[in-house]
């Protein structure tokens, strides 16, 4: 990314909420994010922020994370313009044992659950047959990988999900049934820290066209989701970064949905002309807060015991 291109994508707003306006929301951050009085501050505690459907074979203990050690980032221009915030006092810890892949494998790693936010926020997300509920949200968090992190082939990081009632859950892992009733937009890392969006959307020709054209590299994975914008950003190790994802639903029958991703306040991927749904019953549900190495085969496994930390979970309803 050139310096000129980077400057054009940097937000002047807080990297956890890099947009000028929102209706209401919540954050577990102790940092000053917004003057908007509708941004509720809550503790990073499961029951306070709507954590549910927790993977039974992994854990996400709340810990005091280690002090960050800035080992830089692959793109020096990006690093020089990043927004480096004070470290959070508490974070969820993800543990990836040597040989681990996804939480259902023989050696599970990372953790997984869904997160709908505090009651006022989750009530605002509700969508029903009369079309009520949020049409656009932004969800964000901060994360840090241990300073001697080894990437292997790749792995997953949290993102946004939605759909129709319980059909919204499990919209990943090569799901084939009910794909018009769910969507899932997560982050993925690849070898050497190259980042991308890993997306499951309804299988339409227009979605395929739009996702395939995102630079620098986008690929449709047979039987799985779309790898979108691979290499549009690189993930550093040993320091905290901010990740924010905005999803705007399409009007039913119109391809006008949107996805945007910010890393440390810089907009790195922006996609328009998408379809998330073909029914008013399909709505935004919150975060698919999942992380693991993989892939679903042993050659994706973590090469050693490793840890990562997640904090400052934030969500706002834009419209």
TrEMBL record:
Signal peptide: none
Matches recorded under Gene3D superfamilies: 2.60.120.200
Record domain Polysaccharide lyase: where: 93-313
Pfam families membership: Polysacc_lyase_14 (PF21294)
Taxonomic superkingdom: Eukaryota
Protein name: Polysaccharide lyase 14 domain-containing protein
Organism whose genome encodes this protein: Lentinula lateritia
């Amino acid at each position: 990314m050139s310096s000129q291109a980077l400057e054009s994508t940097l937000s002047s707003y807080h990297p956890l909420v890099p947009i000028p306006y929102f209706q209401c929301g919540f954050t577990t951050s102790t940092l000053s994010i917004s003057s908007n009085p509708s941004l509720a501050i809550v503790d990073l505690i499961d029951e306070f922020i709507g954590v549910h459907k927790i993977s039974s074979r992994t854990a996400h203990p709340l810990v005091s994370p280690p002090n960050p050690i800035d080992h830089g980032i692959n793109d020096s221009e990006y690093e020089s313009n990043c927004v480096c915030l004070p470290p959070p006092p508490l974070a969820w810890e993800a543990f990836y044992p040597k040989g681990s892949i996804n939480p259902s494998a023989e050696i599970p790693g990372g953790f997984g659950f869904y997160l709908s936010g505090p009651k006022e926020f989750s009530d605002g997300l509700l969508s029903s047959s009369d079309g009520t509920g949020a049409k656009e949200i932004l969800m964000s968090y901060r994360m840090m990988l241990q300073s001697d992190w080894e990437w292997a082939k790749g792995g997953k990081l949290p993102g946004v999900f939605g759909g129709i009632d319980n059909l919204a859950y499990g919209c990943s892992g090569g799901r084939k049934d009910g794909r018009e009733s769910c969507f899932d937009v997560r982050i993925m890392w690849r070898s050497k820290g190259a980042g991308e969006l890993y997306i499951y959307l309804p299988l339409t020709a227009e979605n395929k066209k739009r996702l395939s054209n995102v630079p620098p590299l986008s690929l449709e994975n047979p039987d799985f989701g779309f790898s979108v914008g691979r290499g549009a950003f690189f993930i550093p190790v040993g320091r905290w970064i901010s990740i924010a994802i905005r999803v705007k639903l399409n009007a039913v029958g119109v391809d006008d949905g949107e996805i945007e991703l910010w890393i440390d306040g810089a907009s790195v991927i922006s996609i328009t002309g998408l379809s998330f749904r073909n029914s008013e019953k399909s709505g935004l549900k919150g975060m698919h807060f999942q992380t693991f190495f993989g892939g679903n085969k042993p050659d994706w496994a973590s090469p050693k015991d490793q840890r990562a930390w997640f904090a400052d979970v934030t969500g706002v309803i834009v419209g």
